[in-house]
């Protein structure tokens, strides 16, 4: 995928995780942090050549 697709997917995932955290009564920033952690781990797996 291209860089634009990656950015769009990241923004959409952060939006929905933020909504989920708000619904659960947690700070919205926790949703953004969760997406960032998941994105970093997925990037590390992909760059290591591990099939997901």
The chain-level structural class is: mainly alpha
Q: Helix tally?
A: 2
Helix % is over 70%
Radius of gyration: 13 Å
- Percent strand: under 5%
- How far apart the termini lie comes to 15 Å
Assembly of the depicted chains: single chain
**Would you identify the regions where 5 or more consecutive residues have pLDDT less than 50?**
none
The chain-level mean pLDDT equals 83
The outline comes out as elongated
In total, how many beta strands?
0
Taken together, the total number of domains comes to: 1
Please specify the SSE layout and strand pairing.
Blueprint lengths: L2 H21 L4 H21 L4
What does this structure look like?
- The protein has helices at 3-23, 28-48.
- The chain has 52 residues and is mainly alpha-helical.
- The protein has one domain (3-48).
- The chain is elongated and about 40 Å long.
- The mean pLDDT is 83.
